Task: structure prediction
Amino acid sequence: MPIRKSYAKVNIFLKIVGKRDNYHELASRFVRVYSLYDIIEFKKEKCTKFTLEGNFSCDIKRNTVYKAYELLKEYSSKVDEYFNNHKVIIEKNIPEFAGLGGGSSNAATFILMVNEECNLKMSKEDLCKIALKIGADVPFFIYEYNSANVSGIGEIVEKFEEEILDIELITPNIKCDTGEIFKKFRDEFYTEINQEKVFKLFKEKSKDFLSKSSISVANDLYKPAKIIYKDLKNYEKKQWFFSGTGSTFFKVK
Ligand SMILES: C[C@@](CO)(OP(=O)(O)O)[C@H](O)COP(=O)(O)OP(=O)(O)OC[C@H]1O[C@@H](n2ccc(N)nc2=O)[C@H](O)[C@@H]1O
Ligand SMILES: Nc1ncnc2c1ncn2[C@@H]1O[C@H](COP(=O)(O)OP(=O)(O)O)[C@@H](O)[C@H]1O
Result:
């Protein structure tokens, strides 16, 4: 039975390098969290339509896995044939709206599984073109790297060699809205890091970077997030950092 782990990520650092239309270009280190994952299973069963089971807060049409299915079925009739005979079951453990990339990770893992099960023989680069249509963070999960430097708005993913990190997480029950936080950043906190600094950051090991950094220096979006979600500051602790647009805080052990 095809079954696979769909891991969470954290952003060790997240710096803004510029604007692109309504979006912001980033320089970020994405690291896979081995201790937190959803489980995706394709279970043999006759289905009259694409069937997705799991504890999601959104309806199926907005689910990243459904979006991936819609895109993949355009590539081969084998996809629809397969899901007429299999349902998708996702055991959700990664909290939503948490900056842990759960929805993005599910979409990428689903794409990788379909590529294998339906024998689509698509390269990672081809799969990334589909991934990017679903969300900016999806390409990172397609490559399955432990650690990577991510730029553009998420479409440039470069493997970074370092030890696997043991990451501790705290996710307050605060649903951070990514769009709102970027807006606050653009209106009140806008700064850009220059390419020279990005070059240096991208060469530094995550542990070394964190050992001499602070939460707001590591993540440009923490200050605006804290203005909108005032309770975040109750979770601030020495050597703890903020992932993406939150609300997860993390520490590398
Ligand atoms: C910033 C990151 C880093 O990992 O935060 P997390 O989602 O992980 O917390 C992600 O790239 C987030 O990607 P994603 O969660 O897919 O964002 P989207 O839903 O596409 O964006 C919601 C809104 O946020 C703003 N946005 C998003 C990404 C970006 N690079 N610049 C932006 O300005 C845009 O206004 C967009 O309309
Ligand atoms: N497969 C999925 N798993 C989790 N959330 C999903 C999924 N598909 C769509 N979503 C929606 O994506 C949004 C949150 O995305 P998620 O990746 O979990 O968090 P974050 O962007 O904070 O890392 C929510 O609106 C959620 O309902």
Summary: The two ends are 35 Å apart (CA to CA). Residues 167-252 form one domain.
